[in-house]
Amino acid sequence: MSIHLFDVDHTLVKKSTGYFFLMECLKQRVYSLRQLWRLPFEWARYKIGRPNQDFISQAVARLGGVDQRKMETLVEAYFTRRLKPHIYTEGARLIRTLREKGEPVHLATSSFDVLIRPLETYFSLSDSIDSVLEFSGGRATGRIVGPVPFGENKKNAVAAWLAARSLSAEDVYFYSDSYTDLPVMEYCGHQVAVNPDRILEQEAKKRGWPVVRFRETLGA
C-alpha cells in the first residue's frame, strides 16, 4: 500500500504557515516589526541554499510566555483569515482523491503542530510529522520539543515515524517544493517535486522525478 507524505509550506499552501501566523501576530501585537528585522536576511540565505538551521528555534523563542488560550485564538484567526484562502486547490483535490482511494495521507513539515492542526482538520487528516511547540503551566515556553524536523532531521523524523508504524520507506510518496527536503526525498521510494525551487527543480530533472505545478488557491 502506498503512503503519501506532504510537505506543507509552498507545497500545499502558497507562501508559508509561519508567514501567515507572523502576520496575524503582528496584527494582534504579539510580535513587533522590530523583532522580525532578520526575516528578509534569513529568507535570502534560504533562497541561495544556505539556510540557518537554528532560525526556527530562534523565532519560536519569542513566543515564550504567550498564554495557551491566546495562542488558540491566534491560530483560529490565522487559519480562517490568512491560511485557508491560500491552500492550493489542486493540492486539496489530490489529497481528496488519494483518500477516496483509501491511500493514507499525512503531513510532514517543520512547521509547528499548533499551526498544522487546523489544516489537518480541514483535510480530515491526523498523525502529522511536525515541530512540537512546548507549553508549561498554560503558557508557551518558547521552546520546541525535540529536534526541528528540517533537512537531515526531517529525514530522521520520517524514518522514525515509519519504523514506529512498521511501514517501509519504499512505499512512500513524498511531495515537496524545497531543496531542504532532498534528504527525505532520497530516502523515500517515490518523489514528487511540487512547485519546486530552483535547486530542487534541477535535481528533479537530473533524476527524472515528476514535477507538478499547483497554481490556483481556494481564495483565487
Describe this structure in words.
By secondary structure, the chain is of the alpha/beta class. Helices cover 43% and strands 18% of the residues. It is built from nine helices and seven strands, in the order E-H-H-H-H-H-E-H-E-E-H-E-H-E-H-E. Strand 3 and strand 4 (139-145) form a beta hairpin. Helix 1 crosses helix 4 and helix 4 (68-83) packs across helix 6. It is globular and about 45 Å long. The termini are far apart.
Distance between the termini: 34 Å
According to DSSP, the number of beta strands is 7
The chain-level mean pLDDT equals 87
Q: Percent range for helical residues?
A: 40-55%
Shape: globular
Would you list the SSEs in sequence order as H and E?
Answer: EHHHHHEHEEHEHEHE
Contiguous low-pLDDT stretches (5 residues minimum) are 32-49
Number of H/I helices: 9
Strand content: 15-25%
The gyration radius over C-alpha positions equals: 17 Å
Largest sheet entry: 7 strands, mixed
Structural class: alpha/beta
Strands side by side in the biggest sheet: 4-3-2-1-5-6-7
